[in-house]
Design brief:
Blueprint (H helix, E strand, L loop, with lengths): L2 E7 L4 H14 L7 E7 L6 H14 L4 E6 L9 H10 L8
Parallel strand pairs: 1-2, 1-3
Amino acid sequence: MPTAIIIAANGFTTETTNPCLAAIADTTSPTTDPHRVFVFDRTPRAELTRAWNAGARLASEFGCETVCFLNNDTRPYPGWLAPLVDPAILAKIGRAHV
C-alpha cells in the first residue's frame, strides 16, 4: 500500500512548493517507494494541524498505509522515505507522525 506524503503549504506559493514537489519526485520511485502526494494550504485560515488532519483523512480514504508530514520548504534527499516509514510498517503502527 502506498505512503501518503502530506505537504502543508504556507499560502501555497510556487516558489517553495514546486521545489519541494520536484525534490520528492527526484528522490522517490513509484516502484520502490509507492506513495501519493497531497498538498494542503495552511494560510492563517487553515492552521497547520487542520491541514495535516485533512490530509490524514484523505490519505485514509485513498488506502494509504502510512503518512509522512512535510512542510513545503522541505527538500528531501535520496533514500529519505523508506527509513521514515519502514519502522512504522514493521511495527504495524499504521500511521506515524515523522
